[in-house]
Design a protein that fits this description.
Number of helices: 5
Largest sheet: none
Radius of gyration: 15 Å
Order of helices and strands: HHHHH
Helix content: over 70%
Strand content: under 5%
Length: about 150
C-alpha cells in the first residue's frame, strides 16, 4: 500500500494526500508535525544565541527525522525529501563535522517554513476537503542544503 519514494523522484510536485484512505493518519501527522515545527523554531532561536547548544541541535534533528519518516510513510514526497536533506545536514553538525553558521541556520529556517506551508496544505485538506492545488517549491531548498552539506 505504501511505497518508498526513490531519491530520483521530483520534489517540486503537488502532494498526493489520498485523503479518503489516509484521513486518520493525516490527522495524526498534522498534529504531530505542527508540534515538531514549533520545536524546531524554538530550538533554532536557542541555536542562534548558543550555536554549540547540543540539546537544541538534537531537538531539531529529532523533529526533522520524525517529519521525514512520517511523511515518507504517507508518500508526501516534497516533505519527505526536504526533511531528509536537512536531517543529513544536522547529522553532520551533531557529529562535529559541520559548524552551524548563520547561513546554515537561515537555510534550516527556510526549510522549516516550507514544511509549515506544506503542513498547511494538509490542514486545508482535512478541514475543508480541499486537496493541494499549488506546488510548494522545495527543490531550491534541497539544493541549497546539499551545497551546505558538501562544504563540510
Amino acid at each position: 500500500m505504501y511505497k518508498r519514494q526513490s531519491d530520483a523522484c521530483p520534489r517540486d510536485v503537488l502532494m498526493a494526500l489520498n485523503l479518503d484512505e489516509n484521513r486518520e493518519l493525516l490527522t495524526e501527522f498534522y498534529a504531530e508535525t505542527v508540534d515538531h515545527l514549533q520545536q524546531i523554531e524554538a530550538a533554532l532561536l536557542a541555536l542562534d544565541q548558543q550555536p554549540d547548544n547540543p540539546e537544541a541541535l538534537n531537538s531539531i534533528f529529532r523533529s526533522f527525522h520524525t517529519i521525514k519518516g512520517n511523511a515518507g510513510f504517507l508518500c508526501l514526497v516534497p516533505m519527505q525529501s526536504l526533511a531528509h536533506e536537512v536531517e543529513s545536514l544536522l547529522d553532520l553538525a551533531r557529529n562535529n563535522q559541520l559548524r552551524l553558521t548563520a547561513p546554515i541556520i537561515t537555510e534550516i529556517l527556510r526549510s522549516r517554513d516550507a514544511l509549515q506551508a506544506l503542513t498547511q496544505q494538509v490542514a486545508a485538506a482535512l478541514e475543508k476537503g480541499r486537496l493541494p492545488d499549488q506546488v510548494i517549491p522545495v527543490g531550491h531548498l534541497i539544493q541549497a542544503v546539499k551545497r551546505l552539506t558538501a562544504q563540510s
